[in-house]
């Protein structure tokens, strides 16, 4: 799966400050911070074991190397931590900002998302996953409808790629960039 571009500059003050904090966390807190970016136990544990990181760029590079080695059960575990598009999980501060396009959808779009999510989950056995940041409800609905035609194998690959992009965004937030 191709890696998404990351705007994090290893030279930015914010990224350096976030990196110092991340590198100084105890093992459990660091693992929890990484799990907030991707809920695969294997991914979060391997990310924690990679500390200390010399740069934000090194964090993203390690994240991608680990992503490349994950198995379907790792991906499914990560997907399980995501709320449905249009329905942020209770207490999830990011859900509102990551899914702003869905939460501001019309009633008709929200109903179409709900129905599409149900069909998707019935077919694939996991939540519809899309890097929703910056997408409006129309684009999310279009992607959902298109992806319903995929084979389970193809869809797992696409959803995993979306999880990678979401994790990149969350790592950027974690690093403060």
What secondary-structure arrangement, pairings included, does this model have?
Blueprint: H1 13-24, H2 27-35, H3 41-49, H4 56-69, H5 72-79, H6 93-98, H7 100-103, H8 107-124, H9 137-147, H10 152-175
Helix pairs in contact: 2-3, 4-10, 5-10, 8-9
Please provide a written account of the structure:
Helix 4 (56-69) runs antiparallel to helix 10 (152-175) and helix 8 (107-124) runs parallel beside helix 9. 65% of the residues lie in helices and 0% in strands. The chain is an all-alpha fold and 177 residues long.
What is the structure about, briefly put?
The protein is mainly α and 177 residues long. The protein has helices at residues 13-24, 27-35, 41-49, 56-69, 72-79, 93-98, 100-103, 107-124, 137-147, 152-175.
Largest sheet report: none
Q: What is the mean pLDDT?
A: 87
Please indicate the percent range of residues in DSSP E strands (runs of 2 or more): under 5%
Supply the number of helical segments: 10
Rounded to an integer in angstroms, the radius of gyration calculated over CA atoms is 16 Å
H/E element sequence: HHHHHHHHHH
Low-confidence stretches: 1-11
The secondary structure category is mainly alpha
How many strands? 0
Shape: globular
- What portion of residues is helical? 55-70%
CA distance, first residue to last residue: 24 Å
């Amino acid at each position: 799966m191709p890696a998404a571009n990351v705007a994090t500059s290893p030279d930015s003050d914010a990224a350096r400050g976030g990196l110092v904090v991340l590198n100084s966390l105890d093992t459990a807190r660091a693992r929890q911070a990484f799990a907030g970016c991707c809920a695969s136990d294997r991914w979060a544990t391997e990310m924690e074991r990679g500390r200390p990181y010399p740069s934000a760029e090194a964090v993203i590079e390690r994240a991608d190397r680990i992503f490349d080695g994950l198995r379907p059960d790792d991906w499914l575990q990560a997907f399980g931590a995501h709320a449905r598009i249009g329905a942020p999980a209770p207490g999830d501060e990011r859900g509102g900002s990551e899914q702003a396009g869905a939460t501001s959808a019309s009633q008709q779009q929200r109903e179409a998302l709900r129905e599409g999510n149900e069909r998707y989950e019935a077919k694939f056995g996991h939540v519809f996953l899309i890097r929703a940041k910056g997408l409006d409800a129309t684009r999310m609905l279009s992607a959902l409808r298109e992806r319903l035609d995929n084979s389970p194998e193809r869809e797992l690959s696409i959803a995993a790629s979306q999880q990678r992009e979401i994790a990149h965004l969350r790592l950027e937030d974690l690093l403060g960039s």
